[in-house]
Amino acid sequence: MAKITIDNLRHSYLPEPKRDEDFALKRVHLDWADGGAYALLGPSGCGKTTLLNLISGLLHPTEGRILFDGRDVSNETPEHRNIAQVFQFPVIYDTMTVYDNLAFPLRNRKVDEAEIRKRVTAIAEMLELTATLSKRASGLTADGKQKISLGRGLVRSDVNVIMFDEPLTVIDPHLKWQLRSKLKELQHRIRRTMIYVTHDQTEALTFADQVVVMNNGEVVQTGTPIELFEKPKHIFVGHFIGSPGMNVMPCEVKGGKAFVNGHAVAADNAASSDGSSRLELGVRPEFVTFADKGLPVDVVKVSDIGRYRVVDTRLGGNSVKLIVPEGGAIPEGKAHLAFDKAHTQIYSDGWLVGEAR
Amino acid sequence: MNKTFNNKAWWMVLPVFLVVAFNALVPLMTVVNYSVQETFGNNEFFWSGTIWFQQLLDNDQIRASLGRQIAFTAVVLAIQVPLGLAIALCMPRKGPWVSVCLVLMALPLLVPWNVVGSMWNIMALPDIGLLGKTINALGIHYNYTRDPVAAWFTVILMDVWHWTSLVVLLCYAGLVSIPDAYYQAAKIDGARPWAVFRYIQLPKLKHVLTIAILLRFMDSFMIYTEVIVLTGGGPGSATKFLSIDLVQKALGGFDLGPAAAFSIVYFLIILLTSWLFYTLMMRNEAN
Fold first, then answer.
1. Which of A23, A85, A130, A172 has the largest count of CB atoms under 10 Å?
2. Rounded distance, CA A116 to CA A105, Å?
3. Among residues B196, B220, B206, B223, which one has the least CA distance to residue B170?
4. For B212-252, what is each residue's pLDDT tens digit?
5. Which candidate from A79, A93, A109 shows the least CB-CB separation from B187?
6. φ and ψ at residue B67, rounded to 5 degrees
7. Which of A349, A51, A17 has the alpha carbon at shortest distance from A215?
8. A158: phi then psi, degrees, rounded to nearest 5
9. Single pTM value for the model
10. Which residues of B205-236 are buried (b: 16+ CB within 10 A; e: fewer)?
11. A39 near A197, Cβ under 8 Å?
12. Residue B265 region, left (φ>0) first, then alpha (ψ -120 to 50), else beta?
């Protein structure tokens, strides 16, 4: 178990990177507490797997350091770092039984057989693999195989961190949900530092205490799921998290007040904007309501999602979506909208105004 | 449900049936036909029963050829499979050297068989050949046209040179198809290189190795051209393998009956061994 510090880490897959675009990971700085559950969330190609492989030691960073409990491990092999990693596709040793698969990492480290039996039995119990222990691993279903991969990660009691690289990609949806709850439960039970990489917001937000949102090789925001939802630091976070994503529209700020399409809108951080650069106003559909007066819009489309409806409206040239709970009235044609001031933010060049980056 | 019974579709199978008949069934049955008959020319044939088969099994010469054939195939497999696997493991996985290595490996496979025989025939000549002269210069007496051991050595060396590449290419293809995640997981599980080979590479190569062994078994068991050009089956009959024996019988002696019986037995040996090997290798898969 360890506290993990990522110090000014940069990585490029090119031998001699020069420009900023050459880097798959552009200067990342993170501090992770011991025993926490973290998620790296971002679209494909954003550098999250690169970051994970740097932490596990499968890649060597171009610049920067990785510290476990203050000890620099940047030049150590994955074996020396004593970490566990579960990959996107289940990796099992075909010729071995499930038991031997789970025992493999321990046997390689010359752990005593009695101790191995104890650990493997306990882990198999947790993952509900006990019945299959003596079977050949190659005969199992995809989720069974992925459970073995998970098991091999969990079986060592002394690992510094367990990392998951989109581990549920190949799992059927209904089993996905089960395995996800299982993982969360295990995290609570054994309290080991876990890092979970995914592009699925539901997985990240349900698993992690702290979510790191990445885009284009950069960390865009780190925060609890609620922080990410209520106060996205960048419009990318607003778009990427939430369904539908945050409404973003161009705006002007004059005298500490925001104007959209010439209409004044109350925004939480309007006062701190100097109005110099490209400004946008962001508000989540959850914080938009129909009102008697306010921003005049045209109702374009209503989609029934089940427990609520998503209403698409036009405000000048911009689309504004809002969520109306079941039973709520939806006007036709012309309507007026009100934004919740506390959750309406101004963004300058994509970044939240008035916040330190 | 009403099903329309119309068997006219069977006519569609006719072309395939004809092709199979003319390229496999008819020639094979001709051989079977010859193997149970005796002829004295003039296209007259007499029923002879199983006499050719009995003669074949009692023939010491053929038994000796069979023994040599089995020994040759065993030695060739014992060298080429491990060597090919080892070379494939040493070849680079990426970078500019990949294509260089692949071309170098494919080269021997592109040389026509009789050219391979001629090449080695000349190269191994003790008085003018590069190989023969070098070995003799080292103080080792070497003359493949006189000494059976030298002849065997040369034939095996030639076959290893010609065909190891096939095993290498098959194994290499199998190796590069193993996803990186397996190696990464093994690294994280703390597996030593031997464990990586034993538990990841070897099991993943099982299928290609099975194919490689089968191909090399069949080809080496049927070897003819290279050996006939290199040693002509000699000295004496030291390198006279089954196919050479067969050709001498069928064309040299024009003994159609015995040659046909020989062909059938030869074919059955290859068929049975291949089937047995393949079934045994794949049986574990099913369980």
1. A85
2. 10
3. B206
4. 999 999 999 999 988 998 888 878 888 889 888 888 887 77
5. A79
6. -60, -45
7. A51
8. -110, 15
9. 0.75
10. bbebbbbbbbebbeebbbbbebbbbbbebbbe
11. yes
12. alpha
Question: What one-letter code names the amino acid at A236?
Answer: F
To the nearest whole angstrom, how far is the Cα of B198 from the nearest Cα of chain A?
Answer: 9
- B137-153: per-residue pLDDT in tens? 888 888 888 888 889 99
pLDDT at position B71: 94
Contact predicate B170/A77, CB 8 Å: no
Give φ, ψ of B169 to 5 degrees. -65, -40
Judge contact between B160 and B84, C-beta under 8 A: no
Q: Which amino acid is at A291?
A: A
Give yes or no for a contact between A105 and A152, defined as CB atoms under 8 angstroms apart.
yes
Using CA atoms, how far apart are residues B285 and B183, in angstroms rounded to an integer? Answer: 23
Least confident piece of the model among A273-277, B10-14, B45-49 = A273-277
Task: Report DSSP state, residue A45.
Answer: T
In the numeric block, which tokens belong to residue B191? 């597996």
CB contact under 8 A, A89 and B185: no
Confirm or reject contact between A79 and chain B (CB < 8 A).
Answer: yes
Answer whether B190 sits within 8 Å of A91, measured CB to CB.
Answer: no
